[in-house]
Protein: UDP-3-O-acylglucosamine N-acyltransferase
Organism: Kaistella jeonii
Amino acid sequence: MEFTASQIASFINGKIIGDETATISGVSPIESGEKGHLSFVAQERFADHIETSKCSVLIVSEKLLTKDSYPTTVIAVEDAYLSFQILMNLYKEMQGRKSGIEDGAVFHKTAEVGENVYVGAFTCVSEKVKIGDESQIYPQVFIGKNVKIGKNCVIYSGVRIYDYCVIGDNCIVHSNTVIGSDGFGFQPTKDGYQKIPQLGNVILEDDVEVGANCTIDRGTIGSTVIGKGTKIDNLIQIAHNVKIGQNNVIAAQTGIAGSTVIGDWNQIGGQVGIVGHITIGSQVRIQAQSGVNSSAKDSEILYGSPAINAGEYRRNYVHFRNFSQIVKRINDLENNSKDKTNE
């Protein structure tokens, strides 16, 4: 599809500087722009590209513009990053949605499917499953018995949703994620570790997105809950009976142990480890590769392993880097003191 600068500006309420008939047929990163492509500049550190980019049209935040004309066509907006997101969403909608049941999909006779639903080939829909209107279930998905999937969801190929789990409206689950696998529960006995049955489920509330190759374990009794609007990156493990609140973002390779409770609007970096049976407040920021082994209050910033206040960690790290010199200075002081005592 091709679009003119004028059409693009109308979608995002932008002001054109340059040729309003300039056309684009693709998009590029600003660092490697191409003729006939669209890109954006939202930050000061990329502002030099406004003069040098080969892109035919650039969306630029107004605060970065200092001239009346530029070598390429510019669309001035308040927030270029947000405007570019709007355009990407519009383009995705224009591509259309699939609907209907493909050959090879297997349905139990008691399953219920809403209107305008797509189910791909070789997907298995078990007994008493309910799938809401407008949802997209891609090929080779397994949906266990009594699972409920809400409206306008997207479940990509290879996802496994175990029995009795609940997926809210507008959720996205990426390929090869497993929702509702058994929690890691074993009782030590004289004969070895005996498995504890995991009888609960997983609940994803509305507007949750789960990345690829994640595992979210079912509760032992009760539910593992992912709150409304929470976004989970790839390769994340969430253990049984964890409760995660609303609008959290959790980066890749994080592991959260059982029965931990996490509040709202937290930011958790990549490769963070969080022990079980603790409480993380709201608006907490946990830096990448931190190991959290105790509860955190609202608005704390944690860093390190074991994780402590980020500012304290950085101050102490300066001393740690100079630790050899500090020890040498102490030894020198002790030696000088002994020498003076001997005199």
Q: What stands out?
A: The two ends are 91 Å apart (CA to CA). Residues 3-94 form a domain with the Udp-n-acetylmuramoylalanyl-d-glutamate--2,6- Diaminopimelate Ligase; Chain: A, domain 1 fold (CATH 3.40.1390.10).
